[in-house]
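Example 3.2
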Amino acid sequence: MQTIAVIFGGRSAEHDVSVVTAIASIIRPLELTRQYRVEAVYIDKTGKWFWDDRLKDIKLFSSGEIAQWTKRARPASIQFDGGMTLVKPGVAGRQKQQRIDLVFPAMHGTYGEDGSLMGFLEMAGVPYVGCGVEASAIAMNKVLTKLIVEAHHIPTPKFQYFTRATLEHDTGLSKSVKETLVTLQFPLFVKPAHGGSSIGITKAQNETELRNGLEVAVRFDELVLVEEGVSNLIEVTLPIIGNDDLTPAYLEQPLTTSEDFFDFDTKYIREGGGKKMAGVGGAKQGAQGYSTIPADLPKKLYDEAEKTGLAVYRALGCSGLARVDMLIDSKAGTVYCNEVNPLPGSLYAHNWQRRGISNVELVTRLIELAEARFAARQTLTTTFSTNFLKQF
């Protein structure tokens, strides 16, 4: 029986979303397969690692007891010995150890989804689910994503970006605001370049709101993106799984108004704004009851959006799974790449269920894709012999 380590939490603004993804969408379905031994590995907000079966219980986190539990528990460590072994203090001074066959990352945002954890696992020589180092790093950097898709001639909204150093040296942000307004028109969206779950994003309709948005975003990131809004907007998102042969889920259409945008509160707290939006206009329930699945689009536009999503996935070199978010100008019929999420919250399991893929089948297929990708990489030559050292 294979041993799968599910790693979640971390020093990220999306820490709490990670906990829910890990327990509800990964650990429970994996255990239902009865094919795997599942080990829960939790990284707290200070960066300490913990390994314990009690971490599989969402009540430990929802009750707030996790803070006291981590104070009492002994942190775990990782042993690298041609692979990865979990280690923690046991009874009578003995260590408890568990060899890991594969890692299923569930860490959203910084130090996880951004490629940091993937690089760590590559060094350890352990197969893992999801995108590799490069694709994860690019996808989690909204600026790099836009530069890559532009290079592949895939439309993306007009944008400007600033480093934290630039903004900090711009007293009153006057120069940055002026530079933005030379090329972009309101409404504008100001975003931390590496953020997720819409945290730190501001919609700006005027110079004052733009300035405030820059001040907010720079608190979360060292790189800030300013993006021009799309007219006649329809937002859609496309979950995709696969390495070379790709399988798209349904295009999903969030139910938001032109005055609103799909922020953290809408996604995770208000359950669609508290308006029972799943029942509006015959819409069907999505992740939290706020979206139409499949998106209500003319067939030609639907097909174009799906084609664009698959092209973006390939352009960034994604593997395993990712979600491509797109913006559509419904009058012009233009589909724009907005951003890519290399680890969608909850794995977007609700969408895959509509596609006929259960939670259990989804996690099983993702593990198979991880193993295939790892096996393919093992055929590459990464070292070779030389006489270089003999001259010293």
